Amino acid sequence: MESARLTLEKRPFLKRSLSRAAYHGLIAWASLSLSYCAYKAYVRWLTSSFPAWLKWEIKSSFPPAIVIFASIYLIYHVKARKARPGAWEYAVMLLAYGLCANLMAFNYSTPVVLVLNGALVITALLIALLRLSERLPPHLMRAAERLGIAPWITRITAESRKAALSFNESASGTPSRLIAAGTGLVIICTLLIAAKQRAAAGHAASIAWLLLLTGVSMKLVRSLRDRGED
């Protein structure tokens, strides 16, 4: 009974750890995509072409780099058991990420090294912007009070939170959220293709496929487990 109770207590922490690691994996993917697009635009500006072999070599380094950053965050979160890392902890994680990524890059050409290190800088900037955005609401509310629109902002915020809570209840857990996110990315893919952004659409399609596959697999596993318990 004691072991079963401890297992139930660990489940929320494990779920929270994995979800936050996946969130940081998405940050790494966004940084790699931005760095790749910047390097691709630079090469095309110089040579007016971008070889297909270079494209696939750079993209082949994305999955291991994403796994490295997500794993570093997961190890930190499991050991520290802190809700949110501080600036110093993020600096150490980014240093470890850069070291591991550059060690991995020994198997690749120089352009891959440039893209990975560019992604490292973009990752640091994105994390800094996200941390800054968390501190903005109090300052925005003080500005809204000075402008006399604080009640209007408060009402919109309350309605948004209510809509988000009702969506979370109807989504019924992580699998449904993954499927919803994958479906949203598929819609974004069609818009990117219409805008002739095929490279970005390809990245979004890969993530959408991964989210949909993960969500459906989790639903299937839960369904089989519930049948077994019955």
Would you give an account of this structure?
With 230 residues, this protein is mainly alpha-helical. The protein folds into two domains: 8-134, no CATH class; 156-230. It is 89% helix and 0% strand. It is built from eight helices and no strands. It has helices at residues 2-47, 52-60, 62-80, 87-104, 110-147, 150-171, 174-194, 198-229. Helix 4 (87-104) packs antiparallel against helix 5 (110-147) and helix 7 (174-194) packs antiparallel against helix 8. The protein is globular and about 55 Å long.
Radius of gyration: 21 Å
- Uncertain regions: pLDDT < 50 for 5+ in a row? 1-9
Strand content: under 5%
Secondary-structure content class: mainly alpha
Q: What composes the largest sheet?
A: none
Instruction: Please give the share of residues in helix.
Output: over 70%
Mean pLDDT across residues: 76
Query: What's the total number of strands?
Result: 0
Count of helical stretches: 8
Number of domains: 2
Question: What is the chain-wise order of helices and strands?
Answer: HHHHHHHH
Question: How far apart, in Å, are the first and last alpha carbons?
Answer: 20 Å
Shape: globular
Quick rundown:
With 230 residues, the chain is mostly helical.
Element layout with pairings:
Blueprint: H1 2-47, H2 52-60, H3 62-80, H4 87-104, H5 110-147, H6 150-171, H7 174-194, H8 198-229
Observed structural traits:
single chain; 230 residues; mainly alpha; 2 domains; globular; disordered N terminus
